[in-house]
Amino acid sequence: MTTDQNAPQAEAESTNDQISVRRAKRQRLLDRGEEAYPVSVPVKDTIEDVRATYADLEDGEETDTVVAVAGRVVFQRNTGKLCFATIQAGSGERLQVMLSLAKVGQERFAQYKADVDLGDHVFFEGPIGKSRRGELSVFATEWTMAAKAMRPLPVLFADLSEESRVRRRYVDLIVREQARATAKLRADVMWSLRNNFHNRGYMEVETPMLQAVPSGAAARPFVTHMNAYDMELFLRIAPELFLKRAAVGGMEKVFEINRNFRNEGADSTHAPEFSMLEAYQAYADYNTMADLTQNLVQQAALDAFGSTTVTLADGTEYDFGGEWKRIGMYETVSEKLGRDITPSTTVDELRAIARELDLDLDHPKYGHGKLVEELFEHLAEDDLYEPTFVMDFPTETSPLTRAHRSKDGVVEKWDLYVRGFELATAYSELIDPVVQRERFEQQARLAAQGDDEAMRLDEDFLEAMEYALPPTGGMGMGMDRLLMALTGLGVRETILFPLVK
Questions:
Q1: 62 labelled as ligand-binding?
Q2: Is 115 annotated in some ligand binding site?
Q3: Reported CATH class of domain 13-147
Q4: What would the DSSP string read from start to end of 150-219?
Q5: What is the pLDDT of residues 419-459, one digit of tens each?
Q6: Taking the CB of the first residue and of the last residue of the chain, which one, N or C, has fewer CB atoms within 10 A?
Q7: Of 119, 171, 169, nearest to 148 (Cα)?
Q8: Where are the domains of the chain?
Q9: Which fold has domain 175-324+386-494?
Q10: In the beta sheet, which residues pair with residue 62?
């Protein structure tokens, strides 16, 4: 075997050895009547507050003010009569602690040196001051173990692989500032979105995760079984039809931010479990929702970064400001091909064009609408770097969307692209229950032809529509993808705990 092949086994053996040593230290604590995992320690100050309050002390200045702090030990250096430790808060803020033989006594000093490891949570109490080198420090007079770490931390200055980061995100959060920053950014963005909706008079609701009929999107569902009712259920692929039920009931501005589940591929832009924002507004249309979406994203960037221009993971800048472009799907495909493609272009013509482009789209499930969308993705998607609304989709592929008010053969739907990937979609919602039934029946025929992403007919939803859904604009936006757009990270890096095979 090569050295590289032996490395994982050697690392595992080293970790097991260290776990054994740390278990022995835990036992030593217990044997002398101390707790390795006390229910609490008498913390009175946070690392963040101590740093903010005493930042202006002079180099070498010691105060009589006693602080009581706790944190994870991420660095330590032990000498004969002096120990230096750096403790870290969950935020990543750090504080130096100095333990001297003179201040803590010979017994406790020796026990600290023998029993405290990197990764341990430790409580320290003592006066605050600055070292002669200008480092804000706690000059400890006592210490207590708060939680003994059984496993060693990774080397702090070595980069973790992406695989290691997503499999052990808890370790990633300890050692990597970017992981903590991304988690905080996600929270800031969610706050911004909710605050923006609140200021617009929207109501946040929660709709079912388990559904008897999976619908609201073209996607394959996860299937489960409910023992209590002895019935097949599905993890939802979208909340759309229940949010529309709420709109029927009089909730004229409603939104939800929650999980969706789609039993499909996983790659750098797709996760089987993901967070989705959906919003619906009565007496609005897809133009209203485009204006709303632009403002939501721009305000989220302002709230999170202080600017609509953000710095991506590769160091480049991206500008979300200004008015975003709006282009037509059919017009764009026509321009790329150099020939007119319209809703009346036949399936045979579109398949011939696909063959010319070496695209295998001859399956019966590829009707006119799917063919046009596939051609658009192949020809234009990668060019959509700046924020762009792609307007007016084929009727066939948009069964929940109303027909365009002035263009035959298309519906009032847009997809928002950012940096070459789809971020959001919106409709002028179909509100005619008779037409909606016809659309669902058409989807059933597609399913019979082998389209496993075709929507299923939902009789309860159709009944709700018969009570009259007002003219409505609806929008959906992936939250993980919004974080991707704002940071330049892959989808797994934006999710705190992504599913890993």
A1: no
A2: no
A3: mainly beta
A4: SSPPPPTTSPPPHHHHHHTHHHHHHH-HHHHHHHHHHHHHHHHHHHHHHHTT-EE----SEESS--SSSS
A5: 999 999 999 999 999 998 988 888 777 777 766 666 677 88
A6: C
A7: 119
A8: 13-147, 175-324+386-494
A9: BirA Bifunctional Protein; domain 2 (3.30.930)
A10: 129
